[in-house]
Amino acid sequence: MRPRPKWPTQSRPVPRRGERDRVSDTLSQDGTASLLPEAELEDDVLVRVDNLVKHFPVKAGGLIGRTVGHVQAVDGVSLTIRRGQTLGLVGETGCGKSTLARCIAGLIPVTSGTVTFERRDITNLSRRAMRPFRREIQMIFQDPYGSLNPRRRVGAIIGDPFAIHNTATGAERKRQVQELMERVGLNPEHYNRFPAEFSGGQRQRIGVARALALRPKLIICDEPVSALDVSIQAQVLNLLSDLQDDFGLSYLFIAHDLEVVRHVSDAVIVMYLGKIAEAGPKGPVYEMPRHPYTAALLSAAVAADPKLAAARQRIILTGDVPSPINPPSGCRFHPRCPKAAGPCSQQEPPLESKPGDPATHLTACHFPVEAGQDLALADRREWP
Amino acid sequence: MSVTELEFQASVVEAAPEQAIEGRSQWQLTWRRLRHDKMAVASIVVILIITVLALLAPVFAAVLHHGEYQAFTGAGLSSAGIPVGPGTHGFPLGTDYVGRDLLVRILYGARISLFVGISTTLMATVAGVGMGLVAGYFGGHVDTVLARFADVVLAFPILVLALALAAIYGPSLLIVLGVITFFSWAGIFRIVRGQTLSIKEKEYIEAARSLGAGPWRIMFIDIFPNLLGPVLVLATLYIPTAVVFEATLSFLGIGIPAPTPSWGVILSEAQNYYLESWWYVVFPALALLITTLAFNLLGDGIRDAMDPRTERLFAARGNRRQRRTRKTRPAGPDALPPLTVSELGE
Q1: B22, A139: Cβ pair inside 8 Å?
Q2: Looking at beta carbons, which residues of chain B come within 8 Å of A7?
């Protein structure tokens, strides 16, 4: 029997989540934990990414293929993922979230910078050298239809990790696969079915079971719920948080849905055009966003409380996301920023803790948003 | 949709009886559709008959007491030295120009044709699939070299090479096999390479890589099963091409050397006698025609059966027939297909 699904509601959050918030808040207030490398508790850090850069060459057509430019997908990103915690990564499409995830998972080579896993450098390892780390770092993919091979049975798909790493064979593998299926809420008797015979949510559970098979320490979730119905999203998110408790997993949780990230994350990073705009513990970032981009994103998100939504002013960003091949000078957000001024187009703002913020709350902005400031009025366009 | 509704739905799914645990594979579905295609079933039957006849060729020879190379200059030829017609002197399909039994020779020819057709297709498929997977998956220089090589092969004048080889080494079965294989793999290579290029961008390939799967495992465990369909169709259609190719080479005298009974050889010999002895050209030509037609129709049938839309076509045809027979019954809401468990979702 599959476990009865939990139904979270806005008014009655899952208590476990609340506890974790308090823990992270106290940690940040007394400054023992921080996103800054020097203030970190080393043992607590599972993954550290240092100044990661990933540029994709843009080639002119023809047989030789002269490189004419670079897509600066990720441009100097540093972050840390702690044991047993969830780091949320938000940003709009094309800001480099997925590229960053693939660099950390070692699926694509990085241009420069380092990725360390439990203090061991895993940057640009060969496939063979990366093999032991594959067991520790797993991925859950966005598309529940594209991420499962349509020609293979579910048992074979979930059994793949065992086959590749030679950890279980024959009846033992089948037993373990069925155990995993049961754990993620699938009927283990559906072992011999094909992915096409499952719904989107069930397929994503298959993906979760596959990621879980090798008992990894880190699971990178690349928009794991954005292709699902809202009701199914909640089920999968609950499953992920249950698994986190049971197995002590750490998550890098990528999404473009701010509310989903708020629900699952302990700390949040907001990316814009390959750079970190704002980073910090969940509470401060959501309650007191300092970067105008974060403020704009939050103002556009659907509020659970209609009264709150009515009281809130929406910040309308003008223009489109600039091309990552030729990003704007200075602050990459300045052409769309309602607060942009002189230095914004000249000087790149450093990612630093702003006055009045906890040490872990970092913002890359020359003119951070102040409390009570109404950005909507600073907008260059009239809201009809 | 409210939470209670969803919960209700979830409990409905839970309560559904557990049945059909074994999922239907693509092959089971294909076979089910193929079974309903009369033309394809007929082709399978014809191919099986031809295969059995070819295997039984020595039995026919023994029963008729006519060896494949045995020339009956007395009974097998008329007084003017012309082949005798079907049914005369115990030759069911008549004789050839030296008085050999035409039926026995055609049956032995079927062995050669089927052997050449199937073995060259197998070799070409293995080569084409292997190289196509490597070229498509690895890309880069490997791909450039292999793809250009395939282009060269496809642009090569086939008969000129066959003639040159036959002139140097003399005609032989080995050269026939080599030439046909060499000119067949490139077509399969192209299809496989193209499919591999598109499949390797799929997320499940990335998932396999993130699990630590190596390139060979990804190529053969993850990509290959997705290629089997088109490759099978293509291979089935290559068999008749190879059969005709062999006959052509033998007809031109650069294939199977003369006394060996191959359909091409028999047709080539018949050139001088077809005015007097129609059976000499009609029966081997019919054998060739029926064989190639059966394989071609089977290939078409498999292609249709692989296409998931075909089932609906057949179903529609079945419904129409039903409606014709039971005209009085209106198509009510009960005509809707029942909702399956998987459609309900979680």
Answers
A1: no
A2: 3, 6-7
Task: Give domain status of residue A19, yes or no.
Answer: no
DSSP label of A71 = E
Mark residue A356 as left, alpha or beta (left: phi above 0; alpha: psi -120 to 50; beta: remaining): left
- Residue B16: per-residue pLDDT: 43
Q: Based on the domain organization, do A361 and A252 belong to the same domain?
A: no
Q: Is B346 on the interface with A (CB under 8 A)?
A: yes
Domain that holds residue A202: 152-209
pTM as predicted: 0.75
Structural domain tally of chain A? Answer: 3
DSSP codes, A237-298: HHHHHHHHHHHT-EEEEEES-HHHHHHH-SEEEEEETTEEEEEEEHHHHHHS--SHHHHHHH
Q: What residues in chain A have per-residue pLDDT under 50?
A: 1-40, 377-384
Q: Are residues A189 and A227 in the same domain?
A: no
Q: Per-residue pLDDT tens for B284-339?
A: 899 999 999 999 999 888 888 887 665 555 555 555 555 554 444 444 444 444 44
Cβ contact B212–A135 (<8 Å): yes
B7-59 pLDDT, tens digit each: 444 444 444 444 445 556 677 878 888 888 888 899 999 999 999 999 988 88
The pLDDT value given to residue A197: 85
Position A108 in a domain: yes
A139 contacts B210? CB cut-off 8 A? yes
Contact between chains at A232 and B345 (C-beta distance less than 8 A): yes
Residues in A closer than 8 angstroms to B198, CB to CB, are: none
Q: Do A197 and B345 touch (CB under 8 A)?
A: no
Q: Where residue B340 falls among pLDDT bands split at 50, 70, 90?
A: very low
What's B32-315's CATH class?
mainly alpha
Q: Judge if A204 and A221 occupy the same domain.
A: no
Q: How far apart are the first and last CA of chain B?
A: 14
- Across the interface, which of A147, A164, A202 has its CB nearest the CB of B213? A164
Q: Which of B18, B25, B342 lies closest to A198 in CB terms?
A: B342
Please tell me whether residues A192 and A72 are part of one structural domain: no
Which chain A positions have a beta carbon within 8 Å of B202's beta carbon? 146
pLDDT mean across residues, chain B: 80
* Contact yes or no for A205/A233 (Cβ under 8 A): no
- CATH code for position A87: 3.40.50.300
> Rg for chain B (alpha carbons), in Å?
27
Segment B150-203, tens digit of pLDDT:
999 989 888 888 888 888 888 888 888 988 999 889 989 999 999 999 998 888
Indicate if A161 and A92 belong to the same structural domain.
Answer: no
Query: Which of A170, A188, A209 represents a domain boundary (last residue)?
Result: A209
Report ipTM for this prediction. Answer: 0.78
> Whole-angstrom Cα distance, residue B164 to residue B254?
9
User: Same domain for A86 and A121?
Assistant: yes
Hey, is the C-beta of B339 within 8 angstroms of any chain A C-beta? no
Minimal CA separation from B112 to chain A, in Å: 36
Does residue A23 form part of some domain?
Answer: no
Q: How far apart are the first and last CA of chain A?
A: 53
Are A47 and A183 contained in the same domain?
Answer: no
Cβ-nearest to B346 among A105, A193, A199: A199
Domain boundaries, chain B: 32-315
User: Does A123 share its domain with A160?
Assistant: no
| Residue A98 forms part of a structural domain | yes
